[in-house]
Structure prediction request, 615 residues.
Amino acid sequence: MCGIVGYIGHREAYPIVLKGLQRLEYRGYDSAGIALYDEKELKVSKTKGKVADLKAKMESEVDTSGTLGIGHTRWATHGVPNDVNSHPHISNSGNLVVIHNGIIENYESLKKELTKRGYKFESDTDTEVLVNLIEDVILKEKVKLGKAVQIALNQTVGAYAIAVFDKSKPNEIVVARLGSPLAIGVGDDEYFIASDASPFIEFTNNAIYLEDGEMAVVRRHKGVKVRKIFDDSLVDPYIHELQLNLEQIEKNNFDHFMLKEIYEQPSAIKDTYRGRLHAEEGIIRMAGIDDNLERFLNARRIVIVACGTSWHAGLVAEYIFEDLARIPVEVEYASEFRYRNPIINSDDIVIAISQSGETADTMAAIKLAKEKGAFVFGVCNVVGSSISREANAGAYTHAGPEIGVASTKAFTTQITVLTLIALKLAKAKGTISNTDYHMHLQELETIPQKIEIALEENDHIKEVAFKYKDARNCLYLGRGFNFPVALEGALKLKEISYIHAEGYPAAEMKHGPIALIDEEMPVVVIATRKGHYEKVVSNIQEIKSRQGKIIGIVTEGDTSVRDLADYVIEVPDTIEALTPLLTTIPLQLLSYHIAVMLGKNVDQPRNLAKSVTVE
Ligand code: G6P
Prediction:
């Protein structure tokens, strides 16, 4: 978690670093800080709170001039969010300034050593230990900053993306990465450093993505030198051409990124299947699958690893893969998988799903699966992310940047990619009839338009939200393909409105949750006409006879549920396996409107972060 930004060049650093932090706030937002150097003095401001609080503080405290600067937006790990624990951290001499995203796991032993040697620490952070360790190396070994960073990092255990400069030699910034992302934007005699490319997109399209275990010295007028931290070899960096544009990372006319991203789903899904789905010819082209088709066809089983919303997409995929392609699937929380000594063989395929491609537990699960000989296939959104590079093969979702912390378009585009894979394998294995295969392809192509129709229910959903915004608890029920959607709906509500919500398979209600139902309890039931419809209607009757309040997510034109429910929200009809792509939409809007009505910070819910790079 945490976002880091840096600049060295001919422009004023402050506006670039500040704007960059605002764009990276999705990575953490409990405190923020900036350090600037203007040829004469070092200026540091930091504060608990958001980047907006930092801006107010900084502009009243210091002169913000200077062409070198670094900044940090924090999601606290070691040390509570307060001004002192905020980054940047400064070494005891006052010369070295560092920002850090990650965790130094052996910081306590390092701190003890440094304390014995006379170092003093103001904060509770692991980062302050690191900056003093670097300083200690400079003093002891009489080496330059770059070498000192390398020696210090060879003594640390943990994960990091760091940027550090020495105010007595203000023409370079040293950066390094292990386990946390770091990009260097290469402009015209100017360089940008950031956790992702969004802070520098309007200045350059050229970026170097450091690999794990690499560091770089970024020198004013002299360029970037990359080397390996652990074996000291020089690396010839590849300069990527970025595809991002500014519009993708701005809110445009929407009040929140989450709402913008909900409304982007029709176009995001089109981007996901563009060039892959050729419904008329009955072809699905996906290089990552085509190149490894035999392996997929011979796979004993597929194990899906993921966290959060991506895990829910994995559950939907389990239903789709097993139903269409008849391949056994297991879905695991990456955080459990990595520590439970799982049985994995070389004929297993592990699919790792991750929007950010940086989630620490998912990354660790992949590494474990590879060690055990499995073939790993990544489904990521962020191009060039760590997981996409670590996987043996993969498919991007191409949803565009997702900035709202609560995931929306990432979820539906993940399901789209996984559906394409399942259909491709089903066709190759002969587990789907020709007619069904073509029908699925044609229907998938209509999903963006059907999502547009589902979005037209927005005003009605707002009314439903108003009615239930004061509920303390909420149940979400679904069956089959829509059971994971119920889990996802409940997660969305919890994440952004802080209302307790649980998702359940509708039939399981009788084994516990039914005890919770009374006239205070709203129950959102996904009851589309396909798939166990009558059984779900019976479940609705059971809720009704216990005075529960029913919000039915139904197929357009439905009358049976309408007669029983307090509210119904319609979605267009589609093939059963594709219903999650439609039923998800009203659940996203419902939680969005409830959170807005409750005055919550929808895009930056408390305690959460978009990219969880710590385990
Ligand atoms: C965090 C985010 C969730 C996301 C999960 C997994 O908890 O807040 O929205 O689903 O991480 O992230 P990933 O990037 O791996 O999909």
In short: The radius of gyration is 25 Å. The chain has a mean pLDDT of 95. The chain has 20 helices and 27 strands. Residues 307-310, 354-356, 359, 362, 405-407, 608, 610-612 surround 6-O-phosphono-alpha-D-glucopyranose (CB under 6 Å).
